[in-house]
Design a protein that fits this description.
By secondary structure, the chain is of the alpha+beta class. Helix content is 34%, strand content 28%. The strands form 8 sheets. Strands 7, 8, 9, 10, 11, 12, 13 and 14 form an 8-stranded antiparallel sheet that branches. Strand 21 and strand 22 form a beta hairpin. Helix 6 packs antiparallel against helix 7, helix 7 packs across helix 9 and helix 13 packs across helix 15. It is elongated and about 125 Å long. The N and C termini lie far apart (87 Å).
């Protein structure tokens, strides 16, 4: 037999006495009761599954009750001698809540009724299915006892499988664990239905919600080792580096570093017509993937949900789980435990509902529509600090290609700005414009308040914007303002483009006096305090005038206390060059004092300055003139 090219999980739904088990055995040769026995004995990795290989498709049949999380296709079983029962309706509702899109209807026990009765049951079934996802699907009369119709049913299943979309192996890997055990000679093994991506021996995977990184030792599917398991397949993964007792049903193996565990999810919740109304704060059993936990229900804008209605809701979960946007879930009544509804996850990393968040419901409705451009723009707008690549993936499960394609479509709309390409960081167009305005305002205010300073320090400017502006946003906004010639950013200083320091007459005079005082002193300079004290301007302005001379390099600060005029330092370097040429390339501290006519107070700081400038180099107690 050729290797199947597609794996399809089929949920068998219907009343308990309508022959589901007998039909599955007739199709596959495996009776579900045998599977239950194997489960008790612990010898099967495919809990509750029976398999049929037909036309290149491997069908895995599993009963809907208890296995809802696996089902993406439905085989509805209706007994020809009893027609539709309440349990049939309940299973049908569950499949609808799970977003099942395809199916086949088998009219079992067709050998037990006459043609007229069979036609009546067919008409009743067609009426029941009208307007649903099973409208116009094949209704196949079949008898598991005589084998009549089995060929037609297999063909109908194959046709339905052909139209089933192949899950994308290029998506990020996720395998909800439904069983974990130890296998002699292999160690820890987990099993599950691979819902997205692929996995191969040697891969690194992450165990969520624990967050541990593990290595895959081996992979099995269809009862044999495979090089790579793909979506839709029942899969067993042999893991290195962990005891099987640490692995639990409900955990998920996933692509490392891509997803985040959560205790709050925003959802579209639908209540079955048969359920009682659901009040704000009600506790329910929550089932998603293989995870099961308790959830408290909080409605967005509603106080209660009547039977058969749907609403946007925030679920507070008792345990951490991994879910993504679009994942389907089921909720069961707390007690007695019966299915009362379900729906789809909209935001897997939801915040606690706030009274002052009027845009939340509209945002969730946008997520529900599933348009990527419509999703990414408001998601970015609602992110106070902007949105990074990791968060986009964790919230949406989108691949790199999907993210880049969405960004391309949003380019030029003004709704989002890419403030960093690697790693990717986005902010809303409005936030970016606000940051630009604030930068210009703060630069202008600084220069108005500090007219004697050439500009504001870049880091001080960034800090003044507060912690809610990420550094990438600041950098991108500043670069754009410089490119547009609104601002100048040279080195560490930022100023208005074309702005120059404008000195008042008394400031210009004081500046000249400072420079003259140091120029006339040669190397025996007065203290800075002494020079500034003689000026007509107040000390704060005098200090800023000194800073201007230092930035212009008219003056040079040699130590914390000593400032020299650049001409004096230039002449000193010339003296040393002559000394090296005429006397020696080495000079001691006493010889330096004698050469310059200065005291040790000036000599030592000047020699240390000359060392820093690579004019001299200290060797022992002497300097080598370079």
């Amino acid at each position: 037999m050729s290797t199947p090219t597609k794996s399809v999980i089929v949920g068998t739904a219907g009343h308990i006495d309508h022959g589901k088990s007998t039909l599955v055995e007739a199709l596959t040769g495996t009776h579900p009761d045998r599977l239950a026995e194997e489960k008790r004995r612990g010898i099967t990795i495919d809990l509750g599954f029976a398999f049929l290989e037909e036309n290149g498709v491997r069908f895995g049949f599993v009963d809907v009750p208890g296995h809802e999380r696996f089902v993406s296709n439905m085989l509805a079983v209706i007994a020809a001698d009893e027609s539709i029962k309440p349990q049939t309706r309940e299973h049908f509702d569950i499949c609808r809540l799970l977003g099942v899109k395809r199916g086949v209807v088998a009219l079992t026990k067709s050998d037990m009724v006459d043609t007229e009765t069979l036609e009546l049951v067919r008409m009743e079934a067609e009426e029941f299915l009208r307007g649903s996802f099973l409208e116009n699907v094949p209704l196949v009369p079949v008898s598991a006892k005589t084998g009549t119709g089995l060929g037609d049913l297999k063909k109908a299943l194959s046709d339905a499988a052909a139209s089933a979309s192949t899950k994308d192996a290029a998506r990020y890997f996720r395998l909800p664990i439904d069983r974990a055990f130890a296998m002699k000679g292999f160690g820890s093994v987990v099993t599950g239905t691979l819902i997205s991506g692929s996995v191969a021996p040697g891969d690194e995977v992450e165990l969520l919600p624990r967050g541990e990184r593990l290595r895959v030792r081996g992979v099995q599917s269809g009862g044999k080792s495979v090089e790579r398991a793909t979506p839709g397949q029942r899969t067993a993964v042999n893991l290195a580096g962990i005891e099987h007792s640490a692995l639990k049903r409900g955990m998920v193996l996933a692509a490392p570093g891509k997803f985040r565990k959560t205790r709050r999810v925003d959802v579209r919740l639908e209540l079955l017509p048969s359920a009682r109304k659901l009040k704000q704060g009600t506790r329910v059993h929550f089932h998603a993937g293989t995870a099961e936990t308790i959830a408290e229900v909080f409605f967005h804008g509603e106080k209660e949900l009547p039977p058969g209605a749907s609403a946007l809701a925030n679920l507070k979960l008792q345990d951490e789980v991994l879910v993504l946007a679009g994942d389907r879930f089921i909720v069961r009544q707390f007690s007695p435990v019966v299915t009362i509804g379900g729906g789809a996850v909209l935001d897997p990393l939801a915040r606690r509902p706030m009274l002052r968040d009027p845009g939340r419901a509209a945002f969730l409705e946008t997520l529900e529509r599933g348009n990527r451009e419509e999703t990414l723009a408001p998601m970015t707008e609602r992110a106070l600090l902007g949105l990074g690549h990791e968060e986009i993936v964790a919230r949406t499960g989108w691949t790199e290609k999907e993210i880049q394609g969405t960004l391309e479509k949003l380019r030029g709309t003004g709704r989002i700005r890419i403030v960093s390409a690697e790693p990717l960081a986005l902010v809303s167009g409005k936030l970016f414009e606000d940051v630009r305005k604030k930068i210009v305002e703060k630069v202008e205010r600084f220069q108005k308040e500090n007219p004697l300073l050439p500009g504001i320090a870049r880091e001080d400017l960034r800090a003044s914007l507060g912690k809610r502006v990420r550094s990438e946003t600041f950098r991108a906004a500043l670069e754009e303002l410089v490119a547009q010639k609104s601002l100048d950013a040279q080195g560490e200083l930022v100023k208005k483009a074309g702005s120059e320091i404008a000195l008042l007459p008394e400031e210009a005079k004081a500046k000249e006096q400072i420079e003259a005082a140091f120029a006339s002193a040669g190397l025996a300079v007065p203290s800075v305090k002494e020079v500034l004290a003689k000026l007509a301007v107040e000390s704060k302005r005098a200090e800023k005038l000194l800073q201007i001379l230092l930035r212009e390099k008219s003056l040079v600060r040699v130590s914390a206390e000593l400032v020299f005029h650049r001409q004096a330092l230039g002449q000193l370097k010339e003296q040393l060059a002559v000394y090296k040429k005429t006397k020696s390339d080495r000079i001691s501290v006493p010889a330096f004092k004698e050469l310059t006519g200065i005291t040790r107070k000036y000599a030592i700081p000047l020699l240390e300055y000359l060392d820093r400038e690579h004019v001299t180099r200290r060797v022992g107690e002497e300097r080598v003139i370079l």
